[in-house]
Amino acid sequence: MALAELPLATAEFLAVDVETNGAPGEECELTEVGAVLVGGGELHERFESLVRVTRPLPRGIQRFTGITQEMVADAAPPARVLPELARRIAGRVLVAHSAAFDRRVLRQAFDRAGVDWPDPPVLCTVALARRFAPLVRQRKLTALAASLGIDVEISHRALADAETCARVFCALFGRLCANAATVGEAIVLLAPRRRRATRRGPPPGRLAGESVPAGLDLSGLPSAPGVYVFRDAAGRPLYVGKSVSLRTRARAHFQPGAERAGWTAHAAVVEHRETRSELGALVLENRLIKALRPPGNVRLRRTDALVYLRCRLDIPFPVLEVARQPAPGLGVTIGPLRGRASAVELMEQLNSLFGLRHCGRRLRLRQHPSAYGQMGRCLSPCLGDLDPNLYRRRLDDALAVFTGSDDGRDALIAHLEHEMRTASDARRYERAATLRRRRDRLAVLLDRLGGVLRATHARPRLVAASAPGAAGADAFWLAGGRLTDWGELPDEPPELERRTGAALARAGRPGATAHVPPDEIDEVRIVSTWLAHHEDDVATLTLDPPPDGARLARFAEAAQSA
Question: By the 8 A CB rule, do 549 and 494 touch?
C-alpha cells in the first residue's frame, strides 16, 4: 500500500530538524540532524548526529546554535550519517517545522553526498497550526509550543527542536485525524492555498523570446560589486538592485527563462555605482531604495509599520506607551519595533512585572486600587500614598532592559528565573508557573528586538570589508547602534582620523538613547546580519576609547593589504 493511502491514525511519522551553517543556496551545509519517531500520538526512538562540514562555521552561527567548529570538525561525514537517516525515513511520513526548508537542506545534502533521497510524504507543523490553531499568531516553534502548553528548555539544537516539533504535532494530531482519514488527504488539506493566477508572459508589444529591450545598453556594467538603477526613458527610477557582479545580475532580469517584472518593459537606461564590498552594496541599495522609492522595489521602502516603546519622564509616575514617534523632550525611546501588537504585548508584560501604571498619562486619584492593583500587578500610585522614588526605581529597572550598558535581556530573564525559584521554594506553584510562562513569552518578544538591542549596546568600532579581487576596501563606522558613516577606506591618515572623529560625534552621548530612527532600522539589521556571518572576513578596530592617528594608520594599512 502506498504511503498516501495509509490511514492517518495508524501511520508512523518521523519529526526531523536540521541545523546548518547559515549560508544561502549551494553554500548551505548541514551541521546537525535530529529525528524523533512518532506513532500513536506518542514519541518513541530518537536519533541525532553532528555532521562534518567543508567550510568554516561563522562565529555568529556558532553562538546562535552552540555548535562549534571543533564539534563539526570531529563529526561523522554526511556519507555516513545520511544513510542512517534514510533508513529511518523509509516507510514513514516526514514531519518538520517550516518543512520546505528542512526538506530542501536534506535533499541538497543527500545529493551532495551521493545518497538516494527517500522522497517521503511531508507534513508541516506551521501549516498544521495555521489550519487548526488559527488564533495563535506567533508560529515560530518555541512560541507555538508555549501557546500549546508545551515546555521548551533547549532550542536551536536539532534533536531538541525535533522533539518540540513532534510534541506540537501530537498536540494537533487529533484535530488533523478528525479532518483527514489518510496520509494523502492530510497532505492535500495542509497544502498551501494557491493564489489566483496572474497573467504571465511578455507584456503587450514584447516577443516571448526577447531579452534586453532595444536601446538598453548593459555592456558598460563591470563585473564588480555595487548597485545598479534602471530608469525609464523619462529618467524615472524603476528598480534598484545590488550584486557582487553588476553585469551578471543586471542581465539576469532579461534572460529568456527569468520571471519578468512589470518594470522591465520600460527600462531604457541603467546607471551603476561600484563599491569595494558586498556590505557596501547592501547599504547603498537600501539607501537608494528609500531615497528614490522605485515601483519595482517594495520590501525596503516602507517604515509605516514601525512603532516605538517610549516613556515620557516629564509627567508624575511616568507610564510606558506605544507610539509611532519617539518621545519628545525628556524621555526614553526604545525601538522601533515592527508590529504594534507585539509592542503593546511587551509593554503590558513589563508593566505587570514591575508594577508600573497601566493607565494613561493623566493620573486620577482613586479611593480604591484598580483591578491591576488588586491583582498585585500595579503599585497603585493613584491612591496618593506611594513614594515616587520607589516607583522611579521600578521604572528604571524596566527601562534598564533597553538602556543599560550590559545585556538587559539576560538580566531580566535571570530575574524572572530567580522569582520562579523563590515561589517554588515557598510552594507557590501557581505563581511559579505564571512566572515561567511570562519568562518564555518575554524571551520571544525580546529576541525580536535583539538585533537592535545588541547593536545599540555594542561598543563603537570601525570595520573594513572588501570583496574578493576588489581593489581597496570599504570602511564602516558603527557607533550608538547606527552606521554613522561609510565609504571607501581613506588612504590618507589625517582623513581617516577626521572621519572617525566625526562619526563618533554623530553618534551622540553614549547610552543617551536606545532607539534607532525608522529609516535606519533596515540598515541596522542589514549590517548586523552581514557581520554576524562574515566576522572572519573583515578587519575590526574598537573605537572605545578613540584610537590615535598611528593606530588608525596601522589598521588601514593592514586592511588594505589583506
Answer: yes
Pull the grid cell for residue 236: 524615472
Vertex 200 angle, CA 198 and 202, to 5°: 145
Task: Determine the 3-state secondary structure of 312 from DSSP.
Answer: strand
Q: Which of 194-208, 266-280, 335-349, 489-503 has the lowest mean pLDDT?
A: 194-208
CATH code assigned at 134: 3.30.420.10
Grid cell, residue 81, equals: 550519517
Report whether 469 contacts 486 (CB < 8 A): no
Q: What CA–CA distance (Å, rounded) separates 52 from 393? A: 51
Alpha helices in 230-339 (DSSP H): 246-252, 278-292
Q: Could you give the CA distance from residue 468 to residue 487 in angstroms, rounded to a whole number? A: 17
> What's the pLDDT tens digit per position in 347-389?
888 888 888 888 877 888 888 888 778 877 888 888 888 888 8
Q: Tell me if residue 139 falls in helix, strand or coil.
A: coil
Residue range of the domain that includes 557? 454-561
CB–CB of 305/522 below 8 Å? no
Q: Is residue 155 domain-shared with residue 9, that is, in the same domain?
A: yes
Signed CA dihedral, 427, 431, 437, 442: sign only: negative
H/E stretch holding 110 reads: helix 99-113
| Closest of 502, 505, 493 to residue 549, by C-alpha | 493
Number of independent structural domains in the chain? 4
**Which of the four pLDDT bands, split at 50, 70 and 90, describes residue 260?**
low
Cβ 415 vs Cβ 400: under 8 Å: no
Alpha helix locations (H) across 355-407?
371-374, 388-403
- Asked whether residue 19 is domain-assigned, the answer is yes
Examine the pLDDT at 510 and tell me if it is beyond 50: no
Q: Is the dihedral of CA 4, 7, 11, 13 positive or negative?
A: positive
Q: How many CB atoms lie within 10 A of CB 537?
A: 17
Sequence-distant (6+) residues with CB within 8 A of 329 are 312, 314
- 441/478 same-domain check: no
Distances (CA, A) of 426 to 137, 368, 436, 481: 35, 29, 15, 42
C-alpha–C-alpha distance, residues 204 and 548, integer Å:
62
Instruction: Retrieve residue 9's grid coordinates.
Output: 491514525
